[in-house]
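Hey, I'm writing a tutorial for new members on how sequence and structure tokens pair up, and I'd like a real worked example in the thread rather than a made-up one. If someone can provide the structure for the chain below, I'll link this post from the tutorial.
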Amino acid sequence: MAEWKASCRGNREKQERGRTGGSKGGLFLPDQPPVIVPVFLPFQGCKGRCVFCDQKAITSIDEKGVSTETIVRFLSDAFSKTRRHEGKKVIVAFYGGTFTNNPLPVIRQILAATSSFREKGLFSSIRVSTRPDSLEEEKLLLMKEYGVDTVELGVQSMNDDVLNRAGRGHSSEHTRDAFYLLKSLGFEVGAQLMAGLPGDSPAIFMDSVEEVIALRPSMVRLYPTVVIEGTALAGLYAGGRYTPLGLEETVSLCAQALARFEEEQIQVIRIGLAPSQELIEGRRMIDGPWHPCLGFLVRSRHYLQKAIKSLPSSDWMGLDVRVRVPSREITLLRGFRNQGLSALKAALSAKTLTVTPDDSIARGKLVVEPI
């Protein structure tokens, strides 16, 4: 584990917070991404359990209901470090469970626990995650009163057979209806997609990507499907009825999805599962494309593919070559363990390859020249 920490920690910090999107043909790296203060509510409000899900393993938090006192203590601790938030947009985000499936009084209690912090100007808005089939207008209007402006939907797939096999309990039509309702009430809507679910395939996944693009989400998250001990998926895996994607296939597939979302100027705000202690130590994960820096692997792959496509047609064979790129994109070009540089050098057939920062170059662009 020490090996990946040395290689990935800094890259993950930079590239998952400075995410891609933006103008067509370029790389969108917002100058000041928001600070997210996450509050996890594992399984709270869930109607059932999907075949892949174990939120305790993903978050390292027990499945007990989270009290308002706990929320207040957590936010008090988070906002005691206000210096690091200065000059940035701060968002409180409730993740895990199905937020809008909680009873109305519970939703009110959870959101009321944030009110004193909002009144002090410590954060600007709230986002929640939920299911497409668990939306009631009365609850949504209450959420608006308390400053919720974004709802992320656990779409996972737009293929009904995949949704059925995953035990989701909702259809693609629920997702379309949810987008319409949320947008009509003025919410920004995010979509969470999973690659490699039972019954999924690269073609089906990319079809889901296209259908989500048509719904015009404000943001997207891409997650891999991993096999966690104690889940129904672990039973399918043990019985030979499920085979997870490999890491390379996942990186390639998510890079394709990232490219499409970027072309449509839709931000992909996260790729990969959060590295909880249980996942890092491998105590509960049985198999699957888990990597603590999956987001960086995908983003650097996408960056490299764009870089190679944009290379000038000159003959660089056997030459000493310099590549000039914007300073904040050097890590993307280098890739994990400098794999990107090696691939670029091979594509150029160069004798040597040197990378130089040059912030006069537009983001997402590079200049290749002989030394």
